[in-house]
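DUF2188 domain-containing protein
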Amino acid sequence: MNNFCDIIPHPDGWTYVMNGIESRCSFHTYELAVAAARVEMAKRKHSRVFRRMELNGDMLPVQPQPGSGLNA
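Tokens:
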């Protein structure tokens, strides 16, 4: 079973949702939201699949890239 960490748009920028629970705060940039999600994810021992909400509402997996902060 995959546990998803969704990075989604927020009126103030970006936020993340883990296990259906939205972060208490928002972040000005997508990269800050990913970094904050990784910190929260490190506290939990479950592997996560990062997804990003596209303009059409689809949730697509984010492919880890060097320097993106998404590498495990």
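The chain has one helix and five strands.
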